[in-house]
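[worker-b] picked up task from shared queue
[worker-b] task type: protein-ligand structure
[worker-b] ligand name resolved to zinc ion; SMILES cross-checked against name lookup, match
[worker-b] sequence length check passed
[worker-b] input payload:
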Amino acid sequence: MKAYVQTAIGRFEERDLPAPSAGPGEVVLRMRAALTCGTDVKILRRGHTKVSLPVTMGHEVCGEIVELGEGVSGWKIGERAAPGVSGPCGRCADCAAGRANLCSGTPAWMWGTFAERVRIPAGIVAANLHRVPEGVADEVAAFLDPLASVIHGWNRLGKPDPGPGTQLRGAQAPVRAARVVVG
Ligand SMILES: [Zn+2]
Ligand SMILES: [Zn+2]
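[worker-b] inference finished, payload out:
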């Protein structure tokens, strides 16, 4: 399959890679829409402590299930799905305290949506894979992950004044994403 692979800081190229297959608890998605996130750009410019190179780029996606791993239930071939970038372990102190986004256990991570297919790890299939409702376009569904960041931040603000002057600061990319989805 064709894939865009970051090979070094500031360098990426198109490569032909073997298509992934689904292990136990995993699914494989065929790409329908994949976005470029600020994190993708940061990884390209300066790398990331949790991402070793070479890496197939991209992590915000709407795809269609083309393969179900052993033991996966509740999903069918052909359904559209949008995964989060990580799947919390569900057992550590952070997960127990409702801070799954800060999971200090061994969360599953998913990279590689700038490719024809991507394998979604079991930890994400179990905790952070979302069915896309009919009527929601692929490009809109792919905004799920950044939009979730905005909504989480908004909820933490308590009861902000929803007047026209209200601004969410410090999350520029997700706010732009939210505008596309809502507007
Ligand atoms: Zn992102
Ligand atoms: Zn955890």
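[worker-b] attaching auto-annotations
[worker-b] Confidence is low (pLDDT under 50) at residues 170-183.
[worker-b] releasing lock
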